[in-house]
Amino acid sequence: MDDRSFDILILGAGPAGISAALTAHARGRSAAVLGSDPMASTLAKAERIGNYPGLAGMSGRDLLAAMLGDLQRQGIPRVTGRATAVMAFDGRFMVSVERDVYEAKALILAAGAQQSAKPFPGEAELLGRGVSYCATCDGMLYRGKRVAVLGLGPGSEADREFLQSIGCQVLYFTGAQAKNVEIQGTDKVTGLSVNGEKYAVDGVFVLRAAVAASVLLPGLAMEDGHLDVGPDMATSLPGVFAAGDCTGKPYQIARAVGQGNMAALAADRYVKEHEG
Amino acid sequence: MIQDLTSENFEEVTASGTVLVDFWAVWCGPCKMQSPIVDAFAQKHPDVTVCKVNVDAEPALAAQFGVMAIPTLAVFKDGELAGRKVGLSNLEEIEDMCK
Question: Which label site among A55, A226, A230, B10 has the fewest CB atoms less than 10 Å from its CB?
Fold first, then answer.
């Protein structure tokens, strides 16, 4: 087994993903946590957490630091970045992060509410025809062209710099600026409208904290805009489990941690059943 | 065997029969995932000529076929573009494309 191959790969580095990783590790599974920087999440901005037992009003930032410390003490690897593609092949899952590929026998989706975010008008229709979720993958095809970056998640600044460095002319919008977004074009992207302003562009890089689960795994069943899971946190695809805000409301730490634990136990059972 | 295509040999290689072309680049993670699936397809279907175009080395070919995201797979039948698909494809999807 190499350093990019695991029993269980967890997409999302918040409370659900960390909880899942700790449980998977305790069950003797090799696990890794892959996700955007949790210190840039909404939770990290919470001044105090009042409804999680035993925390005595700790801040979101301190809680995340303590949780990440648990990963480190257990020696569970963390990969900072966004999964941009997932493929099941030969009984395993392949997951790409920038230019690297990771492998696992089971997946746990735990990248938060943005993982089940609604696409912008035009986004799904023009994906691969000007809309991209991966600057390192597709950037080179836009050299010398005008592109927009919608920096909706952490790490987007680095993508902007990368695109500029390879010769793209970049219009950059932060999450706060990217309101009323509409991506325009019929066969391919020709423009972008943000808050009523129109811009002519050849490409739009939509960079959320996580690529939507329904894009990573087409066919994944959704319900009310969230991932549809059974009582054991299994999604509609074999070997794929989900936990936390991506599965629905309430968006609470206690719920996320509990679901992460259950998802890891179910993923452990799945791996065991498919061994040998 | 999977052949690398360039602007020089593209027309000649795609001129006859069914040819599957995988547009890829070294800096693309999803392309690395597509590669073993394309290899498996090539093994299973020796009647189809399977080729790759490195878009970094061959930007003119990428532009000619309007490749805006990779991986992109394209199928040529007797020199004519018969189908294309952007994004990762599984074995069944590639087989459908080449039918």
Answer: A230
